[in-house]
Amino acid sequence: MQSVESLVRRVRAQGGKVTAQRMLIWRALEGDQTHPTAEDLYTRLKPLLPGLSLATLYNTLNELVEWGEVRRFDAGDGHIHYDPDCSPHAELVCLQCHTIVDAPAHIARPAIPAEIAGFRIVLRSEQFFGICPTCQAKSDAGSAAYPA
Amino acid sequence: MQSVESLVRRVRAQGGKVTAQRMLIWRALEGDQTHPTAEDLYTRLKPLLPGLSLATLYNTLNELVEWGEVRRFDAGDGHIHYDPDCSPHAELVCLQCHTIVDAPAHIARPAIPAEIAGFRIVLRSEQFFGICPTCQAKSDAGSAAYPA
DNA sequence: TTCTTTGCAAATCGTTTGCAGCATG
DNA sequence: CATGCTGCAAACGATTTGCAAAGAA
């Protein structure tokens, strides 16, 4: 996601309005690395702006996705997660506790062609599903659900 | 996804039953490269087994996902897609018409470590979002929604 | 016969929509 | 002060669940 300032410019340029709700949501997303769901954000922001409605949050998230400022992805837990970081990187997703963290930079895959099979590539999304260190420790104590 | 025969063995081994519904769904998925949604499969299979209910289809798909036989992913169109091919490969997703095709084999990324940041990797999922050749042709005729 | 799975329909959950009032530009 | 945005609540669509009946083993 670009800076909040450039979002302000973008909205003004298209005749939109910079409201307190949008600013709050933009600021919350800026630099967020927790891959939150809409509900996560709502419970986080509601106390800061009690009037905030879920509908507004969805509106704002959807427009960010349409603008290509935010990426959505399915972590396999039945919830949609949002990530303001659209740079090439992968997520590590735990199949047991659904923890999501960014993969270290050295995992980032090498540059891909701007065009593949005739598709003009705009965005990429990559997830590795597995068992996080914490859950591995738990499994070692009990029965292993995903033996090596 | 493994062969239908090995699924039969698996179900029997856990005391389950090989029903006409499961067989039908397994056979439909075997070798399927269309990345269908639950609805897609339902409209495709309903005529072949008129009694089939959506609930049963969801049950069967969910158990396949839990068994690691089928992968689910969000194509960004608001629908969950299923893919029986769990081998390393990427999907190309058109942002305009939501067409999904498998990326050619030479795009497949090189082997990754079995362990990243302490996570034991079990599954991987990769999508490239962009504009398909057909939609590019349409855009050329009109205004470009995603200019190069 | 036994016990899993099915089909139906109702319940649920996340997300979207319609509309009157409000606030930005 | 004109228009776009918000909040509310109802609508919506996809998925899940409860339970009696059906059918594999």
Protein architecture, described:
The structure is a homodimer of 148-residue chains. With 148 residues, the first copy, chain A, is α+β, with helices and mostly antiparallel strands. Chain A has 2 domains: 1-86, Arc Repressor Mutant, subunit A (Orthogonal Bundle); 87-148, Ferric-uptake regulator, C-terminal dimerisarion domain (Dna Ligase, domain 1). Helix content of chain A is 34%, strand content 21%. Chain A has 5 helices and 6 strands; from the N terminus they run ααααββββββα. In chain A, the strands form 2 sheets. A 4-stranded mixed sheet of chain A has the order 4-3-6-5. A two-stranded antiparallel ribbon of chain A has the order 1-2. In chain A, helix 3 (38-45) packs across helix 4. Chain A starts with a helix and ends in a 7-residue tail after the last helix. The A-B interface holds A 65, 72-74, 76, 80, 92, 94-95, 101, 103-104, 107, 109, 112, 116-133, 136, 146, 148 and B 65, 72-74, 76, 80, 92, 94-95, 101, 103-104, 107, 109-110, 112, 116-133, 136, 146, 148. The first copy, chain A, binds a DNA duplex (25 and 25 nucleotides) through helix 2 and helix 4.
What is the total tally of β strands of chain A? 6
Tell me the quaternary state: homodimer
Helix content of chain A: 25-40%
What is the mean predicted local confidence, pLDDT of chain A? 91
Strand count, sense and closure of the main sheet of chain A? 4 strands, mixed
Low-confidence stretches of chain A: 143-148
